[in-house]
């Protein structure tokens, strides 16, 4: 039986195209699409990770519209998906909250299109049989190197048919959740 899964969308620390560590802006599309995907695949929680207070306020405003405002009566399905979102200032805060919810054995698993290392989708699916999981996605050009230096598990990247490998994070989240939670890996 698969254990609970949460996802985290990290806006800091991430890298830009030059490799500099930056904070990226929250996008409405990422919130809606990843929340809808998470709800579809039975994900228990979706953490939006940003230390930028103005970005946190923006997310709260979007959530308020869909959970309490006009959007709540206009499209209840959207509110059901967005209700999975928790806003946190750091990945450590997300992991602590998820462990408080799912248990102390919850494991973070990092993702990255540029990574050459990592466990396979089949191996990761087997991990979910034993441990709750926090699947961590980066915005911009991916998670900052400092996160990979923590010794956490890394999931293999999605490979397409050619050499181009720069999926939008919401597409990568959908593909990975499908491979891990539904399809045989």
Task: List strands and helices in order, with pairings.
Elements: E1 5-10, E2 14-15, E3 21-22, H1 28-40, E4 45-49, H2 53-67, H3 70-74, H4 76-82, E5 85-88, H5 91-102, E6 107-110, H6 121-130, E7 133-138, H7 145-148, E8 153-154, H8 169-181
Parallel strand pairs: 1-4, 1-7, 4-5, 6-7, 6-8
Antiparallel strand pairs: 2-3
Helix pairs in contact: 1-4, 1-8, 6-8
InterPro entries: RNA_MeTrfase_C_dom, tRNA_m1G_MTases_N
Pfam family, one: Methyltrn_RNA_4
Protein name: tRNA (guanine-N(1)-)-methyltransferase C-terminal domain-containing protein
Total strands: the figure is 8
Total number of helices: 8
Query: Any idea of the CATH topology?
Result: Alpha/beta knot
The CATH class is Alpha Beta
Average residue pLDDT:
94
Supply the number of structural domains.
1
State the CATH architecture. Answer: 3-Layer(aba) Sandwich
CATH superfamily grouping: SPOUT methyltransferase, trefoil knot domain
Question: Helix content range of the residues, please?
Answer: 40-55%
User: Over all CA atoms, what is the radius of gyration?
Assistant: 16 Å
Strand content: 15-25%
Strand order of the largest sheet: 5-4-1-7-6-8
Please summarize the sheet with the most strands: 6 strands, parallel
- Distance between the amino and carboxyl termini: 15 Å
- Shape label: globular
Query: Oligomeric state of the chains?
Result: single chain
Given helix and strand content, the structural type is: alpha/beta
Task: Show unreliable segments.
Answer: none
| H-E order | EEEHEHHHEHEHEHEH
């Amino acid at each position: 039986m698969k254990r609970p899964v949460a996802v985290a969308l990290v806006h800091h620390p991430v890298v830009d195209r030059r490799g500099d560590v930056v904070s990226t802006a929250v996008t409405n599309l990422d919130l809606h699409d990843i929340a809808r995907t998470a709800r579809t695949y039975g994900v228990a929680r979706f953490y939006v990770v940003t230390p930028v207070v103005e970005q946190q306020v923006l997310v709260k405003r979007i959530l308020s519209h869909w959970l309490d405002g006009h959007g709540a009566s206009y499209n209840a399905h959207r509110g059901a998906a967005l209700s999975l979102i928790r806003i946190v200032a750091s990945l450590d805060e997300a992991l602590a909250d998820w462990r408080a919810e799912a248990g102390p054995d919850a494991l973070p698993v990092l993702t990255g299109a540029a990574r050459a290392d990592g466990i396979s989708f089949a191996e990761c699916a087997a991990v979910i049989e034993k441990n709750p999981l926090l699947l961590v996605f980066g915005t911009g050009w991916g998670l900052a190197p400092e996160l990979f230096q923590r010794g956490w598990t890394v999931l293999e990247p999605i490979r397409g048919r050619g050499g181009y490998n720069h999926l939008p994070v919401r597409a990568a989240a959908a593909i990975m959740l499908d491979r891990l939670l539904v399809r045989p890996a």
